[in-house]
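Researcher: Let's do a round of design. I'm pasting the structure tokens now; please hold your answer until I've finished.
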């Protein structure tokens, strides 16, 4: 099933499901197009010849559009359609897929971003699991191929055991935004995974909408630093040219923030 076929089938499934569950509702074509693309681009080919579809989907919309997407029935329709079209295309899932909604004021009102990724650990092991953080010197194995997508614009590779985030120039990830504290949060590699810690920030650190002092991160988790969105991913970054390059997205505006990488381990994120 090619991309056009995938998109057409997804459109048909969504329309039928919406007619049954939410008569009168509709989903914009741009959402369908990007969902279909996210499924196809992020499906993995396994050694046994099977294809594994991404199981974590994050829909990023403008805050003014967030209310309509918080409808659980609407999200269930999208999730059912994603599952059906992926299975019809011959893809399989390693776990039941999930979909969450995040907001970014830089996303145009008539647009959206879709981030699709693969969860690499069992769902039973949740962020609520007690964690022995140990010391900075005993961080152990560094999570492989981990990265942050900063406000839906740039990929910041996570290659250090400790990554400090904030407005100060000595942070590894510098975010020049007045909502972010000078020393806002820290990512720390512990026992083969990253854990985010809030550093007594003014605006708080949130993971998937829940305020957190510390939280184990899983691919697809949305971190909000007082409203500045970071998406945590692992395995391979989304193979999209607009996220690999240092240029803004094609539909970006003059107000869209861009990332300026200082070196391999430090980046500055600032308004243009």
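Researcher: That's everything. Go ahead.
Model: Designed sequence:
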């Amino acid at each position: 099933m090619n991309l056009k076929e995938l998109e057409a089938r997804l459109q048909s499934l969504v329309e039928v499901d919406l007619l049954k569950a939410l008569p009168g509702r509709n989903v914009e074509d741009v959402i369908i197009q990007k969902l279909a693309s996210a499924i196809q681009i992020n499906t993995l080919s396994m050694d046994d010849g099977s294809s594994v579809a991404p199981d974590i989907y994050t829909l990023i919309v403008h805050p003014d559009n967030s209310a309509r997407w918080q409808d659980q029935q609407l999200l269930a329709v999208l999730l059912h359609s994603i599952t059906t079209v992926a299975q019809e295309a011959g893809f399989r899932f390693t776990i039941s897929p999930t979909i969450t909604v995040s907001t970014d004021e830089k996303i145009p009102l008539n647009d959206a971003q879709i981030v699709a990724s693969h969860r690499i650990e069992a769902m039973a092991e949740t962020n609520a699991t007690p964690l022995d953080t140990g010391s900075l010197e005993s961080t152990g194995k560094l999570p492989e191929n981990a990265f942050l997508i900063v406000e839906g614009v740039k990929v910041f590779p996570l290659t250090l055991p400790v990554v400090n985030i904030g407005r100060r120039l000595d942070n590894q990830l510098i975010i020049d935004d007045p909502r972010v504290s000078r020393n806002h949060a820290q990512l720390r590699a512990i026992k083969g995974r990253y854990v985010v810690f809030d550093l007594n920030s003014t605006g708080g650190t949130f993971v998937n909408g829940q305020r957190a002092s510390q939280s184990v991160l899983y691919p697809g988790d949305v971190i909000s630093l007082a409203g500045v969105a970071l998406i945590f991913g692992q395995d391979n970054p989304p193979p999209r040219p607009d996220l690999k390059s240092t240029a803004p997205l094609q539909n970006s505006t003059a107000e869209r923030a861009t990332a300026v990488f200082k070196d391999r381990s430090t980046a500055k994120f600032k308004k243009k």
